[in-house]
UniProtKB/TrEMBL annotation:
This is Putative archaeal coiled-coil protein. Keywords: Coiled coil. Residues 155-235 form a coiled coil. The keyword Coiled coil applies.
Length: 470
């Protein structure tokens, strides 16, 4: 049978294996998360670099401004104090102008620390002062002080901007850390979900395997039940009812008769099938179970009154002339068709059904003779009989067998209602059979059958229609 994988995901171009899909999904997710992590790491490094560069630049600018202020603080007043007003201002102006227009001045001198914009400014101031009186010196000092104050204000603003940048960088770091934490949590959740999915798949595979085993067990049970049902169907067919389900080779069915009723030329025989144990009612045309003025009902009554067991014997080949009608509370009604060459035996014996099976199915191994009531002279345990139309002597081995034969002949005489008849079988209505194992010798030129240990007496009613089974 197909596996669950083949049932859910048949191998074609449009189908995917569930496990491969999960593995591919996990691989893609891990790759994306790894790239996001790398981008986050690079972004963090880039922010740190920006922060360091800004900080370094601000510190350098602050240092330069401080240097400029210090230079202006000490150099300008000393120059002003060592010369005349115009000389000092000219010196300062020319010096600053030269420094401002040069590309760097003399290395190591304080001139190199004055930025071009400051030297230019001072040069212009010196020219103005040269036009005005020395009394304007105080105004120049005030302007220099204002420049210093403005530089301090700019430095404070730069520091505030730096603080804002640091705060922004800190917030960005926190956001990156939160994103990294969230991504790690997401990865953990996805891994847990993948593990749960894998566990579910394994559980489904185990359930599928268990289901397969259960299905196979159910199939086996169904097959067993089908075999049992077939056996029951075979058993409760007409052949199964009459001949059992043991596939024996016996050609007869022995039914022990319990009661008989005759109505409208039909004999209703109720009995039990020996091979199957089934209870049956046989609907038989009277012609099959009577001869002249003797019918099966009279036969059964006389036999049971004398303590013998009546039996109905049916040939397997005659199933074609029989019909299973219905089931009446566990009793199967079987109809036998009229005017057909049906072989039916109506017999009586003190023996059990198994003895009848053995005798009638292996009768070639037995001697069978028909007895009459005439005793053989000078032989107290022998009676006359018939074999193939010729007279024979039946020599019993003991008194029990001899008396049993005489009792059988007496019952036959009662059935045909001919008391004292010396030869009840001569009318062809009732036959008394001795079936035995033994030996054959000669008695006064007559074949003499010496009866052995196996012995079954049978009283048989000859049918009007059809044939006798014996």
């Amino acid at each position: 049978m197909k596996s669950l994988e083949k049932i859910l995901f048949p191998k074609n171009e449009k189908s995917f294996n569930l496990r491969q899909l999960f593995e591919k999904t996990e691989e893609i997710i891990r790759s994306k998360i790894k790239r996001i992590g790398e981008y986050a790491e690079k972004a963090s490094e880039y922010v740190i670099n920006i922060e360091n560069e800004v900080k370094h630049g601000v510190e350098s600018l602050e240092k330069d401004i401080k240097g400029y202020l210090e230079t202006a603080k000490y150099v300008i007043p000393s120059v002003l104090a060592s010369s005349t007003t115009l000389g000092r201002l000219g010196y300062i102006g020319s010096t600053l102008l030269i420094c401002g227009t040069s590309k760097g001045g003399i290395g190591g001198n304080w001139y190199s620390k004055i930025p071009p914009i400051v030297s230019s400014l001072l040069s212009i101031v010196s020219l103005i002062i040269g036009l005005y009186d020395f009394h304007q010196y105080h105004e120049l000092s005030q302007e220099l002080q204002d420049i210093k104050n403005n530089n301090n204000v700019s430095l404070i603003a730069i520091r505030e901007q730096l603080q804002n940048i640091n705060a922004t960088l800190a917030e960005l770091k926190n956001n990156l850390n939160d994103m990294n934490t969230n991504y790690n949590t997401t990865i953990t959740n996805i891994q847990r979900q993948l593990e749960e999915i894998n566990a579910t798949i394994i559980g489904l595979e185990n359930n599928y395997q268990t289901s397969q085993e259960q299905i196979q067990n159910l199939i086996n049970q169904v097959q067993t039940l089908e075999q049992q049902l077939q056996a029951l169907e075979n058993y409760y067919t007409l052949e199964g009812i009459l001949f059992g389900n043991n596939n024996n080779s016996y050609g007869i069915s022995v039914i022990q008769i319990n009661s008989v009723q005759i109505e409208n030329e039909t004999a209703y025989v109720q009995g039990t099938v020996s091979s199957s144990g089934a209870n049956v009612i046989l609907e038989i045309p009277v012609d099959y179970v009577e001869k002249v003025n003797v019918n099966i009902q009279e036969f059964v009554n006389d036999v049971q009154r004398n303590g013998w067991n009546p039996y109905l014997i049916i040939d397997r080949v005659d199933l074609q002339y029989m019909t299973l009608l219905n089931n009446q509370n566990g009793t199967y009604v079987i109809s036998i068709q009229p005017n057909e060459p049906v072989k039916i035996g109506i017999a009586a014996t003190p023996a059990d059904p198994s003895a009848i099976y053995n005798v009638l199915n292996n009768k070639n191994n037995y001697y069978i003779v028909i007895q009459d009531s005439y005793p053989v002279y000078n032989s107290p345990l022998a009676l006359w009989g018939y074999k193939s139309g010729n007279s024979v002597v039946v020599d019993f081995s003991n008194n029990y067998q001899y008396n049993l034969a005489e009792n059988m002949i007496s019952i036959a005489d009662q059935i045909i209602n001919s008391p004292g008849n010396q030869n009840p079988t001569s009318k062809g209505i009732i036959y008394t059979y001795s079936i035995f194992n033994g030996s054959v010798s000669t008695y006064q030129n007559y074949p003499e059958y010496i009866v052995g240990q196996t012995y079954i007496p049978l009283i048989v009613l000859e049918p009007e229609e059809g044939e006798s089974i014996i």
